[in-house]
Amino acid sequence: MNKFPDNFLWGAATSAHQVEGNNTLNDWWQAEVNLALKEASGAACDHYTLYAQDFAIAQELGHNCHRFSLEWSRIEPQAGVFDLAEIEHYRQVIRELKNRGLEPVVTLHHFTNPVWFSQFGGWSKFKLRKYFLRFVKRIVPEFAHEVKYWITINEPLVYSSHAFLLGRWPPQQKSLLKTVKVTLNLAGAHIQAYRMIHRIYREKKLNPPQVSIAANLQAFEICQPNWRNKLAVYLRNKLYNFYFLDLLNSKKTLDFIGINYYGRNLVDVENWRLSNLLAQTCGHNHHPLPKNSLGWDIYPQGLYKLLLTVKKYNLPVLITENGICTEDDDLRWDYIRQHLAVILKAYTEGVKIFGYIYWALLDNFEWAEGFSPRFGLVHVDYGSKKRLIKSSAWKLAEVIKGKQGVDGS
Ligand code: IFM
Asked: For residues 46 and 365, is the Cβ–Cβ distance under 8 A?
């Protein structure tokens, strides 16, 4: 039976707005109220009150780490005004994790912004980056003694494209220029935050932290083998998968590579138009694969190839997200097992993978898709808020505890 190393990090992730409930002071809440998105996050999983119970479940499942995000809008509800009670809340959250042997992996920006920040103009204005940095400077010293792993920004390109190009997420804009500006601004924010976090730890004479982003990597695969599709795959890899990582790596601002991986993007482009080269996918269900409930192709081999590609950075790798939304929990286990198998293969071939974080610990609010996609290891009844551990979670626990291999042995 192939085994993962003893000190491997095992856990699951959440983000504040998706699970906490009642994050009334951020731009998502505002959009949910004003723009009538499919569903409003409302009380979500009420994780804000039930976090201790949820971490007890993670502990029972054998996890030894947990990824979550700090909600900037709770901590800084008005520009420059920091809410000490909310800082205390997150201190309790981190304490609860540590007491349960769960290493915190803390995300500083996971798609949401305080309303005041978006009213000032948000990420499309370079000069506003200073507000995020002020938040980082205020909050990191609070938890530096307890936290080793920081994710500055979750999926920067997913954020910039969904919010500023596709118009699906607040502020629901459709501007290529703004998308480029926001992307560059987020890159600059990471670089400065990385340096700031390291400086804070040095000043406190603490061991250096491990800081990265969570990069969403997709397996871009050619549908029909022609030059247009080959060029499209090349461009998409360059821009969506590696632009950000290459840039941050060139500035020496990554201590590890954080990878969020979900599946395949089957590239088929009908003409040379730039928008098609950058985004068009096969519309004919060629080369069909099993899908999650949102229709995303399940493709573990894609993760394997990407892991071998990121070897070029010669940095440790943390799978910061990998998961499936489905009502079929056997399919969820298949998905997890197959992805763990390729992770183990890449590990044995020299990719320095040091952890696997499943998305998500709980069923939760899937942004513009609302509550119907269920990614959780734990089922949430959104009415009663009752939790029910799914069988896939127990099977993963067996692997974590070394009682079961990912090859069925
Ligand atoms: O729910 C999201 C999460 O917020 C970021 N990564 C992808 C997940 C599934 O879509």
From this structure: no
**Does the pTM of the predicted model rise above 0.90?**
yes
| Tokens read off for 245 | 């990582």
User: Whole-angstrom Cα distance, residue 67 to residue 312?
Assistant: 26
| Cis peptide bond upstream of 171, omega within 30 | yes
Contact by Cβ (8 Å): 253, 194: yes
Whether 363 lines ligand 1, by a CB cut-off of 6 Å, is no
Q: What is the bridge-based pairing of β-strands 257-267 and 317-322?
A: parallel
Ligand 1 geometric centre to CA of 366 (Å): 7
In this structure, which residue's CA is closest to atom 9 in ligand 1? 366
DSSP secondary structure of 108-127: EESS--BHHHHHHTGGGSGG
**Which stretches does DSSP call E strand in 223-285?**
257-267
To test the pocket of ligand 1, the residue of 68, 161, 367 to mutate (highest count of ligand atoms within 8 Å of its CB) is 367
Q: Is the CB of 260 under 6 A from ligand 1?
A: yes
Tracing tokens 């990824």 back to the chain, one arrives at: 67
The answer, yes or no, to whether any atom of ligand 1 lies below 6 A from the CB of 14, is: no
Q: How many CB atoms sit inside 10 A of residue 188's CB?
A: 15
Q: Determine whether the shortest distance from the Cβ of 155 to ligand 1 is under 6 A.
A: yes
* In 253-322, alpha helices (H): 274-279, 300-310
Q: How far apart are CA 53 and CA 59, in angstroms?
A: 10
Residue ranges of domains in the chain, CATH in brackets = 9-400 (3.20.20.80)
Per-residue confidence band for 408, with pLDDT thresholds at 50, 70 and 90: low
**Residue 321 parent element (H or E):** strand 317-322
Question: How many Cβ atoms sit within 10 Å of the Cβ of residue 52?
Answer: 14
Tell me which residue has its CA closest to atom 10 in ligand 1: 366
CB atoms within 10 A of CB 290: 15
Q: What is the pLDDT of residues 244-278, one digit of tens each?
A: 999 999 999 999 999 999 999 999 999 999 889 99
What is the helix (H) or strand (E) element at residue 51, kind and residue range?
Answer: helix 47-60
Token reading at 174: 């459709």
